[in-house]
Amino acid sequence: MLTCKALTLRQGDFALRADLTFADGQVTALIGPSGAGKSTLLAALAGFLAPVSGQVMWEGHDLTQTAPGERPISVLFQDNNLFPHLTIAQNVGLALRPHLRLSADDNGKVSHVLKQVGLDGFETRKPAALSGGQQSRAALARVLLADRPVTLLDEPFAALGPGLKDEMLDLVQRHLRAAGQTLIMVTHDPADAKRIANQVVLVADGVATKPLETNALFTNPPPALADYLGAG
Ligand code: ADP
Ligand code: MG
Fold it and tell me: Which residue has better confidence, 69 or 111?
C-alpha cells in the first residue's frame, strides 16, 4: 500500500496536508476545485516534489528520497507526456527501455498496446501528426505498458469526447484493476469517479481527506464536495 504519512507539501504560498493510505488494488478518484492541490499531491507521490515534512511510504518502505524512476509508480500528467522528436512507437517503448533499444519482442508489445488504445498503424508517426485525443491515447499506452504497481493519472482524458473517454476509462480499469494494481486518478468529473473509482479523496481547503467510499460519498456529500458539485 501507498501511504502519505503526515505529509506537508508546499508550492510557493500554497500548502497541502495529506495523511492517508491508498490500499493495494483500490481505484481512487482525486476530486476538488481547480488549484486545490491535486496535481501537487501526484507530483509528491511520483517523486517530482519533495515534501516539506512527512513521508511517502510504499509497503512499509520510505520512498521519500527515492528518485521518480526508481519508484513503483508510473504517471500520466495533464499534458506534455510525449517527446515530440520520437515516434509513437518510441514514445510508448520508453515504458520498457529508457534507452530505446527495443527488441522484436518489445516492438510486438508496443504494437499490441497501441492496438488496445485504438492506435494500430500509428507506430512511425510523430506526436505532431496525431490529434489531441490520439496523443492522450498514445500516452495512456505507455502507462499501460509500464505495468507498475501504482498508476497515477492526472485528468488524462480531458481532450477526448465523452464516448472515447468512457472507453479509455474502461480500458484503464480492465487493464490495471484486473492485475490488482492501484490506480489514483485526478478528475473534475464526478461521472468519471462513479464509473471506475471505488473510493474518492477530496482535495480542498489545504487538505486531502482520507479515502471515502464512492457511492456513500455521492449519496451524502460532505460540505467540501457539496460546494464543489454545486460550483461545477
Ligand atoms: P490542481 O491540480 O488541484 O488544480 P495544483 O496542484 O496544480 O492544483 O496547484 C495547487 C496550488 O499550487 C495552486 O494554487 C497553484 O497556483 C500552486 N502552484 C502550482 N505549481 C506551482 C509552482 N511551481 N510555484 C508556485 N505555486 C505553484
Ligand atoms: Mg492539476
Answer: 111
Q: How far is the CA of 37 from the centre of ligand 2 (A)?
A: 7
State whether the Cα torsion 108-110-115-120 is positive or negative.
negative
Residue 121: Cβ-neighbour burial (10 angstroms; 0-12, 13-18, 19+): exposed
Chain mean pLDDT for the chain = 92
Best residue among 13, 40, 49, 76 to mutate for probing ligand 1's pocket (most ligand atoms within 8 Å of CB) is: 40
Q: Quote the CATH superfamily of domain 1-72+148-232.
A: P-loop containing nucleotide triphosphate hydrolases (3.40.50.300)
Ligand 1 pocket mutation pick from 16, 39, 203 by most atoms within 8 angstroms of CB: 39
- What is the per-residue pLDDT across 208-225, written as a single tens digit (0 to 9) for each? 999 999 999 999 888 888
Q: Where are the alpha helices (DSSP H) in the chain?
A: 38-46, 88-93, 104-116, 132-146, 162-172, 178, 190-196, 214-219, 223-231
User: What are the residue ranges spanned by the domains of the chain?
Assistant: 1-72+148-232, 80-147
pLDDT at 231 over 80: no
**Ligand 1 pocket residues where CB is under 6 Å:** 11-12, 14, 32, 34-40
Give distance in angstroms: CA of 21 to centre of ligand 1: 22
Between these two residues, 35 and 156, which has the higher pLDDT value?
35
Name which residue sits closest to atom 22 of ligand 1, judged by CA.
Answer: 11
The one-letter amino acid at 51: P
